[in-house]
Structure formats: structure tokens, C-alpha cells
């Protein structure tokens, strides 16, 4: 009897381990929410998720055009949805008043030199290795027009974008029951 129980426990543990391995994701990191300030982390995330980097060079606390781009585009629902589905957001900020670590300051200065940033705001679309796919800055017209421009730039660079539909609302138990009844009634009607 002890032998049977022991074998059953071993079998149960093996089944649990197998089920757990089937439900794990393939070590794909969860996407960052909003802008990150670590360029290496942005590149790693871009490689893992196979998405381009939206590199925003800004003077967040002093640059008027940067503030306009942020308010008129980056904070719109159209841009946020497109970015959530298609972009890794990276910000290289050059503030006058806002505090930054020396590591971030050095990184941002090196990146501005590498990409020859000559004014703010400047936006680069980059691949996971940091190669330039496109460049832009402030554009009037709001989030929808800006997203259209980004899509065209990415398409020209050979990068496909995703227009994922909004997640469907979960049905309440009552709605679920009504849908099941309707499906059964429809199936019964087709049998006649």
C-alpha cells in the first residue's frame, strides 16, 4: 500500500512539474510601462519583444517644443495604445532643474553625441542594436497624425506594426448563460 501511495505521489509531482513548465512563458520579459531611462535595458527589452525603440531626446523642464510634443502627442490615447503594442519607450532627458544620477547624465550625453542630436525634441526610432530606423521631432496634428507618421517611418524601414484590437470585456455569468442559451437555440434551429 505504501508503495502504491509513493508511486502515486511521484506521478502527481511529475504531472505538476510538467504542467508548470507548459504554462511558463518562454522567458519573455514583461513590457515596461511608460518611458525607461536605461538605454541598455531598453535595447534588451526591444530584442526580447522584437519591437523598435522610440528614443525621445528631451529637455523636459525647460524645452517648450518638448512640452508640446509630450502634451499634444505622447500623452494621447492614440500614441499610448500604439506604443503599448509596438514600441519600447526610452527617454534621454537633459533637464536644467530635475535631478539625475551621474550615470544617466553620462549615458544621455554619450547617446546625444552618437546620434548627433542638435536640438530638442529629437526622436529616433531604433532597432534592438541601436541602429537608426528613422528620425523625427515635434509635429503638429496630435497623436493620431504622429502615429501615422511613425507607422510610415517604420514601414519604410521594413518594420511591421501591430494594430491589436482592444481586449474584449469579460461576460458576466448572466451574459454568459444568455449567450450559451442563444447558441443552443441556434444549433437546434440548424438541425431542423
Question: Describe it for me?
Answer:
The protein is an alpha+beta fold and 192 residues long. The protein has a domain of 118 residues: Glutaredoxin, CATH 3.40.30.10. Helices cover 53% and strands 11% of the residues. The protein contains seven helices and four strands, in the order ααβααβαββαα. It has a four-stranded mixed sheet with strand order 2-1-3-4, with helices on both faces. It is elongated and about 70 Å long.
Give the structure's gist in a few sentences.
This protein is of the alpha+beta class and 192 residues long.
- How many strand elements? 4
Level-1 CATH class name of one domain:
Alpha Beta
Q: Tell me the span between the first and last alpha carbons.
A: 55 Å
Low-confidence stretches: 6-10, 19-25
Fraction of residues in H or I helices: 40-55%
What is the typical, i.e. mean, pLDDT?
Answer: 85
SS content category: alpha+beta
Shape: elongated
Which band does the percent of strand residues land in? 5-15%
CATH fold description of one domain: Glutaredoxin
- CATH superfamily membership of one domain: Glutaredoxin
CATH architecture of one domain: 3-Layer(aba) Sandwich
Q: Quaternary arrangement of the chains shown?
A: single chain
